[in-house]
Amino acid sequence: MEMTKEEFKKELQQRLKEKYAMDINDASSQELYNVLGSVVKAYYSDAWSNTWKDYLEDGQKQAYYFSIEFLPGKMLKSNLLNMGILETVEAGLADLGVSLDELAQVEQDMALGNGGLGRLASCFMDSIASCGLPGNGNGIRYDYGLFKQRFVDGYQVELPDEWLRNGNTWEVRKESKAVDVLFGGNVYLAEDTDGQLRPVYEGARRLRAVPYDTAVLGYQNHLVNTLRLWSVEIPESEEDHYRSIEDRRAFEDLTAVLYPDDSNERGRQTRLWQEYFFVSAGVQSIIRYYLRLNKPLDVLNEYVAIHINDTHPALCIPEMMRILMDEHGMSWEKAFNVTVKVMSYTNHTIMAEALEKWPVALMKENLPRMYQIIEELDRRFVNELTICYPENPELIQRTRIIQNEQVHMAHLAIICSHSTNGVAKLHSDLLKEVVLHDFYQLFPERFNNKTNGIAQRRWLQLANPKLSKVLDQTIGTTWRKTPGDLKLLQNYVEDQTVLDQLAEAKKSNKQRLASYIEETTGITVSPEAIFDVQIKRLHAYKRQLLNLLHILKLYFDLKDDPKKVQESRLFIFGAKAAPSYTYAKSIIKAINEVANLINNDPDINGRIKVVFLENYNVHLAELIIPAADVSEQISLASKEASGTSNMKLMLNGAITLATLDGANVEIRDAVGDDNVVIFGMTEREVYQYYERQDYVAKDYYDQSPVLQRILNAFVDGTIPNIYFEGREIFDSLLKHNDEYFVLRDFDAYVKAQEKIDGLYRDQHHWQQMSLMNIANAGRFSADDTMMRYAEEIWHIEPVEQYSKK
Ligand code: 26M
């Protein structure tokens, strides 16, 4: 794909004339953005259709990544970068007096995900294409993405995210590829004319699933894969079947909103519909495509791999069985055999309350055919185990799919797929040894680890052009295609010039963030301060509260001794809380009130500042991460499956302050003990407390005047305006015995923070540590992660003509 600056300028101006009959100077940013989008789309359209044709002709095996969430963020710059014309376009626009950065602001973040899981899916899409792998995404086109967060008096308020209001440049509606999905009614098996048993549907609702395709461009390799998102419509023929407007509305709203990860939303009917809707549509369209290859269905697994991202798409399994048996007359045994070989599953959590279960009654009523098949899968599983382990009925009870009138989606996914993986070494070990131990005993060969990774292109090249330039000048540009080459930077750990350049880049990113903070919050912050960052969903196990307790300690220390030697610190938070998660919302309120107290206290005089940035999302992450000095990864050991912001922050030169949880363990292994600050209980110690049941949080309070003063501040008015929230937090620690061991780890955390303070004071050494972090972040490239999935799980290969280098 080649294009000169002059060609681009001509093309842009011509399209602007065609579409709006305007000159550059008359066009609004939105109009310019729309036109630029159409130039870009036209530019990759040939490659898109060529890729598609190549796959069809070669009959190559393809992977389909099923995920109920995708969180790509903005796509303009990423597409320009991957096409290799980012600089050309930027310069061309500048000639015309237009700033690319300003145009890029117009694009709405595509926020069809909650956090880690959805963002991971998008990093993976980018890497699949960039590695030249034939793989596509399958998900839901929500009309409203994750809520927008505002603070009112320090409280979180949720507003709808109308991301489609000005249209979406990148999507293509494919009416001709629509499929129908059935819900509800009765299903029974009856003998067909050929003597076969076939399901007969009575009174089912028929909905239409219409796909919207978005191009996923590989990095400068001419490959364009597809992210297919489904939207619901009511077919004309069905319009008479609705009893009332409300009845109809419920179905029309099926793809209206993304559910915020929210305990109150669990077990909701619409969520179950969403899961079946995108799964059924996706599997149907895969089979439809496959039949064009003229291959028999019993070798489907040689051409198709389906990945189940967490259990939300696990209905892929019974849906595939249904299509093979009901629509293509395959026997149960054959259908099951091929389904297991096609399917693979990733687990993203060990938190028991997060494991998905659906009430049998709900499943039966809404998805009767799915339930019949699940019941039979369960029955056969129980039969087989009874033969193999007649002496162990408890094992069968613990592992079967249907228990206590609930369908266990993780059990379904493990039993009916050939691969179950965790997302970091520690997490995968815990799955094998603890959480899924029974299944590991039954199917040891199915369990494997695939440590998460991140898209270096978005999180370094796009988010941090300053650092990228220093890297280019120092180690050449090969790291852009081969992130492992970042290692070369280690050779410069004693080179003062390079260290100064890295420091300069960091400084400039901190200034950029400081300006944003000033503009959006009115708070003035100094780029000289340590930028200490905790950005992730607000959840008790992630322990934003531990961070807050330490901030209060620093505050009281400075009040007591204004001459205390201490580096200036800016604590930055970014976090959304699920709308019904009241405890998490109380912590947001408390952080905001502490921020007010400290930022406005003349005694503190700016030596500590606390900023909670509103509406944390992909775009804001791109602004915060390059400016971070310290990366807070302080979850209770064993609770964070992997974390991925830890990798992004490390890649941008932040020093990780962490517990030995999730991928933090591998970050420590990568950089060595001297370049990371580790504290707190290990996962073993946490499990010991669980076994002995002898944790008494109140002992820590009783024995520590420091903790007394800090915790009392929540209930004695020291922190203003948190009468109820303060009491709730205080009680969670002392009355409800501190579920996530915040008080147990407090002292260790304070010491770790003191260590950070001391390390930062030696700027030369700090720069060296920062360099070592950048240099060793290459191993967390999602490109590598995807290559491992491709080789070890999906058994797909890069397509020759698109493969790297
Ligand atoms: C459940 C029910 C109803 C509505 C929403 C949900 C739901 C949505 C998303 C539950 C969990 C969801 O995501 C979990 C998640 O993001 N897990 C994170 O996955 C990352 C990628 O593997 C890991 O790095 C994180 O450690 C893990 O917390």
Structural commentary:
With 805 residues, this protein is of the alpha/beta class. The protein is 48% helix and 16% strand. Strands 1, 4, 7, 8, 11, 12, 13, 14, 18 and 19 form a 10-stranded mixed β-sheet that branches. Helix 9 packs antiparallel against helix 10 and helix 26 (697-703) packs across helix 27 (705-712). The chain is globular, with a radius of gyration of 27 Å. The two termini are 16 Å apart. The mean pLDDT is 96.
Give a short summary of the structure:
The protein has 805 residues and is of the alpha/beta class.
Whole-angstrom Rg: 27 Å
DSSP helix fraction: 40-55%
Derived from helix and strand composition plus strand pairing, the structural class reads alpha/beta
CATH architecture of the largest domain: 3-Layer(aba) Sandwich
* Uncertain segments: none
Largest sheet: 10 strands, mixed
Bound molecules: N-[(biphenyl-4-yloxy)acetyl]-beta-D-glucopyranosylamine
Kindly report the name of the CATH homologous superfamily of the largest domain: Glycogen Phosphorylase B
Large-scale geometry: globular
The CATH first-level class of the largest domain comes to Alpha Beta
Proportion of residues in β-strands: 15-25%
Mean pLDDT: 96
> What is the fold named in CATH at topology level of the largest domain?
Rossmann fold
Number of helices: 31
Question: Could you say how many structural domains there are in total?
Answer: 3
